[in-house]
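ligand=GLP
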Amino acid sequence: MKPRNHSIEVSATYEDLSERAAAAIFEVMRSAPRGLYCLAAGDTPRRAYRLLARRVLDEGLNVSEMRFVGLDEWIGLDGHDRGSCRALLNELLFGPLGIRMDRIAFFDAKSADLPGECRKIDEWIADWGPIDLVVLGIGMNGHLGFNEPGTRAETLSHAMDLEEVTQSVGTKYFDSGTAPAGGLTIGLGQIMGAKRALLMASGEGKAGIVRRAFSSDSFPEIPASILLRHPRFSLLLDAAAATGV
Ligand code: GLP
């Protein structure tokens, strides 16, 4: 992977990766204080978000004019549910940074009207986009958000049935030991429309899918591979996740 405006940074440890990611997000936020930001949940960016929140507060960066859009959510959950994507972002960023509710658009995946939730997110991105920075993780099957293998490149927000591997890996977020069978996600078209995309991956468990996604274009079997076509893409790995790239 070496096109112009693409970078791969390999950090020695998860802590180093988190520091680099936090610094990269902070720099974009400093340069686009009225920007629209789309930030993945998941375990990978947890430490980066804590470091980012601390830095924003320490340096007094004004985040009050930024807007945020949720990347994805488990169907049946909202921000009150432990393990939901919204709950993680509330805990690590929206709460600590005091982001006003009217600056955030997030899927309410408990709604009886899921198509309406997708329209809400599409309208928010149309009104306030393009997204200045999308921060992504990668699923074990290469998904981005909940864009599972086979998703078309031009998709907007939509519901997806989740593959078995996504459900079984997803149980780690929930005390119940089960994960929902569906997800709402912004589409690959909206991810690719972001001005910048940053993907973080950590740990040896991700090394195989990282190699398959980024050593050559394997889209649409590996959704994350589409980022090789993005005009401005940064891949941030720790050494354990980088063994095959
Ligand atoms: C989850 C989420 C993604 C996340 C990815 C990786 O299922 N839908 O948004 O980026 O899979 O998660 P983790 O960082 O916990 O490995």
